[in-house]
Amino acid sequence: MRFRAKIVDFGCLNNFTRIVNTISKLTKSCTLQLTVDNLYFMLSDKVASGGVSMWCELSQGSFFDEFQLEGMAPNANEIYLELIPENLLRALKTTQNAKSLKIKLTKKHCPCLTVAADLPSLSSNSRVVTHDIPVGVIPRKLWQDFKEPSVPDFDVSIYLPPLKTMKNVIDRMKNLSNFLVLEANKNGEMNLRIETELVSVSTHFKDLGNPPWVSTDGDGSKEGSQERTKMAQVHVDIKKLQQFLASQQVNPSKAICSIASDRTVHFILLHEDVSLQYFIPAVG
């Protein structure tokens, strides 16, 4: 079992650091799956206890100049690691001026991801800074537990407003309640709403647009119009939503929210060769 990779391009290193930063803000611990073509950061808490799920997929060719992987067996060319993303982020933050960065799987006192940065030096000698990040190697018999979260049949999918705008709204609302109603329809409208015994507050967004897979009735019939304006809604823990919005360093080109009424809300952020999915289950 071997893994080694190298980043030379400064922009790629910066982008990779931003993604790890996002992951570190979403979870204290996650699973890192390495394959020949992609890297996956995964989190799958127990939904029954109100846990969230995350799935972040990166195309390795968009970040690494060299990428070599030998899995546990010829017919299983993959490696699964338990990782504390904050530890990886700390290592990456010290390498932002590096001429190159190498990451490899090593065996020290325990399995480690060793990050070695070739830093600029005033002398002719190179200056290499090395970080050993402890990881846990997940045995093959447990790999089946780490699969992409299943996606339910959603009632509505809608493009999100600018994430910074949405975050500012949530930051104000969180002082009023622990829970929030998120609702949207097939007419490009979305509402963020709080209702308590003392106060009722809502923010409305219009003309957001719906992804092309959202069915619409093109004949303009009354039934079609009613279907498009019907709101699907979900009650969520406002702190989980705030954490998701506060974590974002991905700068997505597209951000989509999908609602399965009274079950879950699914966010997906897309940016070039990176996709981040985040599921927040409904409450009560």
Question: How would you summarize the topology of this molecule?
Answer:
Elements: E1 2-7, H1 10-26, E2 30-34, E3 38-44, E4 53-59, E5 66-70, E6 79-83, H2 85-93, E7 100-107, E8 111-119, E9 127-134, E10 136-137, E11 156-159, H3 163-173, E12 179-184, E13 190-195, E14 200-205, H4 222-229, E15 232-237, H5 238-246, E16 254-260, E17 264-271, E18 274-281
Antiparallel strand pairs: 1-5, 1-7, 2-3, 2-6, 3-4, 4-18, 6-10, 7-8, 8-9, 11-16, 12-13, 12-15, 13-14, 16-17, 17-18
Helix pairs in contact: 1-2, 3-5
Main location: cytoplasm
Protein name: Checkpoint protein
InterPro entries: DNA_clamp_sf, HUS1, HUS1/Mec3
Question: What does this entry show, briefly?
Answer:
With 284 residues, the protein is of the alpha+beta class. Helix content is 19%, strand content 40%.
> By helix and strand content, what is the structural category?
alpha+beta
Q: Summarize the helix and strand pattern as letters.
A: EHEEEEEHEEEEEHEEEHEHEEE
What average pLDDT do the residues reach? 89
How large is the radius of gyration?
22 Å
Provide the domain count. 2
What is the second-level CATH architecture of the largest domain? Box
Secondary structure: helix percent: 10-25%
Shape: elongated
Largest beta-sheet details: 9 strands, antiparallel
Neighbour order of strands in the largest sheet: 10-6-2-3-4-18-17-16-11
Distance, first to last CA: 45 Å
Low-confidence stretches: 216-223
Could you explain the architecture of this structure?
It is a single chain. With 284 residues, the chain is an alpha+beta fold. It has 2 domains: 144 residues, Proliferating Cell Nuclear Antigen (Box); 111 residues, Proliferating Cell Nuclear Antigen (Box), CATH 3.70.10.10. Helix content is 19%, strand content 40%. It has 5 helices and 18 strands. The chain has a 9-stranded antiparallel sheet with strand order 10-6-2-3-4-18-17-16-11, with helices on one face. Strand 17 and strand 18 form a beta hairpin. Helix 1 packs antiparallel against helix 2 and helix 3 packs antiparallel against helix 5. The longest helix has 17 residues. The radius of gyration is 22 Å and the shape is elongated. The relative contact order is 0.16.
